[in-house]
């Protein structure tokens, strides 16, 4: 299995990262994508990647932190993305739930990342929360200027954004949220997305799946996310993980098999 969204540089893993990775590998996780949330955290993320041959990374600025990187340029993102184990741009996008950065700051940050994704040919990891319409509008408008790969990560958006994303060839990742009892709306949308466009993630240390909800999440819990997706489609875990791994390696095509 390929955990396509792990925040391994998070404070929650400072004391036992090696144990966390060992448990994940024992659970069948063979590849990890370490996410960069702030441009100044890129060296920390890279250090983890360089110490582990089964981990790759992204480069980017989460929308929460857009206010702190208003001077970041497309060229800086492209330069960092030149490393052979940097395989995606992001995560980036829009999050209007908390409002940690102003809308204009988030939109500008998002646009720069799209420019870097287009220039490098790397897929764009998109975080969107309570911003479906504007996210879709920006992606569609930017796509007209030249195509780029899109992943709508930890997807909890509505059907309209899903449909508009699919029209752009987007992929969608599912997390432990899919297993939550109160996530009926999420399951309803995910059930309509073709399986050849779905990949798996934990988003650890956040969003632990059932039966670990409320605890620190780990990559070792990815099989429970797979189970939730398998239950949704009446398939086995093995069938789902095989499909999702193929999809992930197709999307993140710089990852060495």
UniProtKB/TrEMBL annotation:
- State the InterPro entries in the record: Metal_Hydrolase, TatD-like, TatD/YcfH-like
Q: Name one Pfam family in it.
A: TatD_DNase
> GO: which molecular function terms?
hydrolase activity
User: Which keywords are on file for this protein?
Assistant: Hydrolase, Metal-binding
| CDD domains for the chain | TatD_DNAse (cd01310)
Protein name from the UniProt record: TatD family hydrolase
Task: Tell me the lineage of the source organism.
Answer: Bacteria, Pseudomonadati, Pseudomonadota, Alphaproteobacteria, Hyphomonadales
